[in-house]
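Researcher: Structure prediction, please.
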Amino acid sequence: MTETTSGSATRKGKGQRKGLKIQRIFTTAGVHPYDEIEWERRDVVMTNWRDGSVNFEQRGVEFPASWSMNATQIVASKYFRGAVGTPEREWSLKQLVDRVAGMYTKTGKENGYFASDEDAEIFDHELKYALVNQLFSFNSPVWFNVGTNSKQQVSACFILSVDDTMESILDWYKEEGIIFKGGSGAGVNLSRIRSSKELLSSGGTASGPVSFMRGADASAGTIKSGGATRRAAKMVVLDVDHPDIAEFIETKAREEHKIRALRDAGFDVDLGGADIVSVQYQNANNSVRVSDAFMRAVETGSDFGLVSRTTGEVIATVDAKELFHKMAKAAWECADPGIQYDDTINDWHTAPESGRITASNPCSEYVHLDNSSCNLASINLLKFLRDDDRFDIDRFVKLTELIITAMDISITFADFPTEKIGETTRAFRQLGIGYANLGALLMATGHAYDSEGGRALAAAITSLMTGTAYKRSAELAGVVGPYDGYAKNAEAHKRVMRKHAAANDDLRTLHEMDRDIASAATKAWEECLKTGEKNGWRNAQASLLAPTGTIGFMMDCDTTGIEPDFSLVKYKKLVGGGSMQIVNQAIPRALKKLGYQQEQIEAIVEYISENGHVVDAPGLRPEHYEVFDCAMGKRYIKPMGHVEMMAAVQPFLSGAISKTVNVPEEATVEDFEHIYFQGWKLGLKALAVYRDNCKVGQPLSTGKGEAKSADEPKAEPEPKVIEVNRPVRRRLPKKRPSQTISFTVGGAEGYITAGSYPDDGLGEVFMKLGKQGSTLAGVMDAFSIAISIALQYGVPLETYVEKFTNMRFDPAGMTDDPDIRMAQSVVDYIFRRLALDYLSYDQRAALGVLSAEERAAQLAGEDPAQVAAQVESYAQSAPVAGEEVRTEEADRSAPAEPSRAARTTTELLELKQGFTADAPLCVTCGTKMRPSGSCYVCEGCGSTSGCS
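Model: Predicted structure follows.
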């Protein structure tokens, strides 16, 4: 994107400096990037699935044809500015991107970032191209605020400070409220506040930090974040040597006990419930800041001293192992507290002469000075995987340079919620470049997430990103000067740069892809150190890994942040209305990379579409199962797999990683202790662990779309009389249409003769297999008669299709039917064929039985429903039915339970694999959210539970 600096520009107070010479990479001279894209108009109507109310409506919005409807809805509803229905309302993505990119380009020109006006124009075009093509995205506050009449707040992450005075504590309440109102979150360390075991100057006993947490929690609970994307997000940290640490550790666990008691008494304590507001401390994530000294005491079983905040003396000693066990037990009970490793964080601190790092933002990825902020941007990694399965290193490097340049420009024009935060941020210019779609990239390239190869590739990419970011920061320092705090911290900053470079030298690569990336990273770090030695650096911090919740959907990412794939099948909204189930596009690509042939790929993809997992998929070798392991489901990634992935990339990040390690419900307290201890040993900066179903206040979807806690006791049903109409047999006429189909399955030949009612609808089926008079032939005849009579009594064909498809027994294997390449058994084949011939597209789609043409359409990115309108066949993906399809015949049969409606990927995964995901319902649209870093995000509307 940029080469060596040339030209000249003047920066006020700094004399004459050179500006950046910008090189076109993505765009073409003389052609505006918008003109290279196909645009289309769409209608956005978003409803609450629970009550049918319309949450948002804007018709005729303009977006690239390549953008999904989900991304369209989220951007139009969250980021377009102006009152809906007024001429001032934005209606095109072009307007949104022009508003934001225009401010960046204008500010860069005014502040000497570019060598010439031509370079500024190229920067503008390259930035717009990258944004409209979903190569990266800025964090949500940029889209909310930049270029509007509002304050130009660009930061999503804030760290505050509080001292041991009432004035400071009240200022903390106020500052948090202002930040929440602006659409962001904040963290604070309360360890300066004296403990409840110490005296006030007046002679009374101090309240202690836990007491003051109540007021801040109540304030957060009443303030909705700007942009209406989430509730207030908070992080509260306490040092492990604080005398009130045991009370802090158990605070939320005690509240969880209270929630259970309230629930059992009949109160509504679900997330957003009427009575949950009476429970305290629910609006913050809590973390204990542990030192190396404490962790060594845990390791050796020693005592550990708790220190007075007023005298600095040890006023009590505790058994370190016992205190560590309390932390693990509390987290096991309610997911809090998390843990932050203080000495590791400060060992990688670029500005220690200006103060220690004591806290983090709510999701723990931003760790730097008190009263500071960080603006974020994330790269869509999958956009850099070329058709030949090579990673496009050159374009990735140039995009990273472009993003860092833009992010630094934003600090120049940005507004901040408090003057203290503004001063610190302008003086240290903290940035947070990161990425999304790592999990999808690993799968597409045939790497298991929990593997040495997967970790090597992730580490190499992260090293290249941060090395390039700091190299660009050093180049910017030569153009517009280093950050104001650099001179005081120059030696420390250089030391940390050398630590990153040394970690890169220690990278163990396994394959050509990660070797090439690591080689480029080595070059980036060499240039970074050389240029930084001469110029210094423009930014005290450059990189971290954020959750990328809402912006991940904006970029149409399959996976967020550092996370693995959530599931192998996903729920997708269609542009023309409706929705469909799709198999992740990374799967066919991965299978091809692993050496499977096209027919095998189609059969495996078909199996995944129907089952949601790869176990026993036809032809898939068991040693390849791990490539398709996901965060949830039948084959989920083990907890240490997540921890080891974090450890692999942590040495190449300025900040930390937003990620929660999920463990199964049966995990023990000792498992938590092991994970927290290994996090320290492996050099992580922060870690949080969540046990499935540990929190009562997480509503779970029931079959009727209502909220119910995971362990809510079932009420005894009241006895009642159910009157059931006796079914009536509807016989076929003497003369009826029929068809006969010959087939082979695994080399065995057979025939199906199917007869229909004249007014449509299957009424009989006869299946022939084996020699006349054999036992097999007799059993098939009896089976045929039973099925035929049941069909005539009104049992719907789709019921049989649901029951008999995927039944496994020999003969099985390849067939001669182009629509059904593989069958698990003869019965499996027969009912798939009957479904294709006698069920409507919607009925088949609800059962996951689709055609070869529809599979081809899906792989080509087309809507298979349009193919089905012309040809009834069979595919890998299909619309997800909201209710079970029922016919007149079905209505005459015994009453049946309605099937669950899948409206999000989480709910789809539950249906496919038969378990309940422990995730909250979105308070905006009523659908089940999915994990995103250390919080949750709704893929229906983009709302998050705490992170942007």
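Model: The mean pLDDT is 85.
Researcher: Thanks, that helps.
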